[in-house]
């Protein structure tokens, strides 16, 4: 009995530590189920070719420049202003609905910047966990279209964001939070809130949960039926699921969703099964290659949304992250937070332009590529063309590394014929001895990540 109790307590402690360490970050699923709808499979393969996208978090939290939604959630890992009661804090937070007035809102600028960064698809947050809608929902007044921004002709923000990115040739997606902490059907004022979950007993009040299911279904249908083509429905809040006794009837939602958007890629994050068409490891890269669709979601700063004093990732960090992800078979969606005024700030623009400049020279080794069995050796990463005729060797230079060597060596993936540097278009000196390949780096590029092309 003592051994059994020790095991149980140890397991509970490990779970608690993991949850506290994770905070709002959920691990990816460990199982994948391929969709059976051929339209979905085809769109999914097209999405895998794109490799690089952007995820926009923009909402109430952008006004004070704080972490998105989470400060109103009562969990141990969250800290907030202690001069206010919890209710006062929530009221203060909800009040930003009357201050979010992005008079400089320019989705055309967003799309232009992201296109110059080499991105190929976009996901926009229509509603985060706080329940504030960035579209004109008829099922709630808690929307940007009915508060401070209500008199602006672009008040239905989602419409203009999707149009701007479709006009630039992007695949477009909509982020949607399954939990809604503002809805009385999820956080009911009759009960106190504790944590991120529904705060009333569903078995005691099934009619109320049904109201929440209806509300969620209706809002998803608004997004998928009123705004033209949507390619991806990216659903967050993995704790709203049958396994947590918070079933919102995903089969019913999926049938509706694909009736409006045939071939829609559905991403029910962390809930493995037919509605998680690709997996989404957050702020991490899997240790090894995965042979099914996946996407690392990683912010450009340490935060998903706009904050006042961000810690930026360098362009080289993002490029290197993209290289590793693509060599392992995934996509990268980079989080960018527009300002409260509705623009992409200059510090983000400059970094994204540098990333785009690198991709303009080396993108052939990234876009429309597939994995190779031997995909990494030291600082060298490898991809291949889809027709199998070409291979790409990408030298990853670390920003904090000492000055790079003049040559680089790897084993296997032996070139047939000449090796060409994608950045210069010129042939690179290459020696092959058995399965050992030694490449002389082009002058002037030895401190940059750079890609080479050769026949297999």
Structural class: alpha/beta
Widest beta sheet: strand line-up? 5-4-3-2-1-7-6
Helix content: 25-40%
The run of helices and strands is HHEHHEHEHEHEEHEHEEEEEEEEEE
Rg from C-alpha positions? 24 Å
E-strand count: 17
Distance between the termini: 62 Å
- The overall pLDDT average reads 92
Count of helical stretches: 9
Q: Would you kindly provide a written description of the structure presented here, covering whatever features stand out?
A:
This protein is α/β, with parallel strands linked by helices and 456 residues long. It contains 9 helices and 17 strands. It has helices at residues 2-22, 38-50, 86-94, 107-116, 157-167, 206-226, 250-260, 315-327, 346-362, and strands spanning 52-56, 121-127, 171-177, 232-236, 265-268, 295-299, 331-336, 369-370, 376-377, 380-385, 390-395, 407-411, 416-421, 427-428, 430-433, 436-440, 450-455. Strands 5-4-3-2-1-7-6 form a 7-stranded parallel sheet. Strands 8, 9, 10, 11, 13, 14 and 17 form a 7-stranded antiparallel sheet that branches. Residues 1-22 have low confidence and may be disordered.
């Amino acid at each position: 009995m003592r051994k059994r109790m020790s095991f149980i307590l140890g397991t509970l402690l490990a779970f608690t530590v993991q949850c506290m360490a994770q905070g709002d970050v959920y691990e990816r699923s460990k199982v994948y189920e391929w969709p059976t709808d051929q339209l979905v499979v085809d769109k999914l393969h097209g999405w895998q070719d794109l490799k690089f996208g952007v995820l926009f978090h923009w909402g109430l939290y952008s006004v004070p420049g704080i972490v998105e939604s989470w400060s109103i959630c009562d969990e141990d890992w969250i800290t907030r202003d202690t001069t206010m009661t919890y209710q006062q804090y929530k009221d203060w937070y909800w009040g930003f609905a009357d201050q979010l007035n992005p008079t400089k809102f320019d989705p055309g600028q967003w799309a232009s910047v992201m296109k110059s960064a080499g991105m190929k698809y976009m996901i926009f947050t229509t509603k985060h966990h706080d329940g504030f809608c960035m579209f004109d929902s008829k099922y709630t007044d808690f929307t940007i279209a009915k508060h401070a921004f209500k008199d602006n002709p672009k008040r239905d923000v989602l419409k203009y964001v999707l149009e701007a990115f479709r006009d630039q040739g992007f695949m477009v997606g909509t982020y949607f939070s399954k939990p809604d902490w503002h809805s009385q059907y999820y956080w009911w004022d009759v009960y106190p809130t504790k944590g991120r979950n529904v705060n009333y007993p569903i078995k005691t009040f099934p009619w109320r949960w049904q109201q929440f299911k209806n509300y969620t279904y209706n809002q998803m249908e608004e997004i998928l039926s009123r705004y033209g083509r949507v390619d991806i429905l990216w659903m967050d809040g993995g704790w709203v699921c049958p396994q947590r006794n918070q079933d919102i009837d995903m089969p019913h939602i999926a049938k509706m969703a694909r009736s409006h958007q045939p071939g829609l890629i559905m991403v029910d994050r962390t809930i493995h099964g037919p509605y998680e068409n690709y997996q989404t490891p957050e702020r991490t890269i899997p240790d090894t290659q995965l042979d099914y669709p996946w996407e690392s979601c990683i912010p450009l700063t340490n935060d998903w949304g706009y904050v006042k004093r961000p810690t930026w990732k360098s362009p080289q960090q993002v490029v290197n992250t993209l290289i590793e992800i693509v060599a392992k078979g995934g996509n990268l969606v980079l989080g960018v937070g527009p300002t409260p005024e509705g623009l992409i700030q200059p510090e983000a623009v400059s970094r994204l332009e540098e990333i785009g400049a690198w991709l303009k020279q080396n993108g052939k080794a990234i876009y429309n590529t597939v994995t190779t069995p031997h995909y990494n050796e030291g600082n060298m990463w490898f991809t291949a063309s889809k027709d199998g005729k070409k291979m790409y060797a990408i030298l990853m230079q670390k920003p904090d590394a000492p000055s790079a060597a003049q040559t680089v060596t790897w084993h296997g993936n032996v070139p047939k014929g000449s090796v060409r540097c994608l950045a210069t278009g010129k042939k690179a000196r290459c020696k092959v001895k058995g399965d050992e390949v030694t490449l002389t780096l082009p002058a002037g590029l030895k401190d940059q990540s750079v890609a080479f092309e050769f026949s297999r």
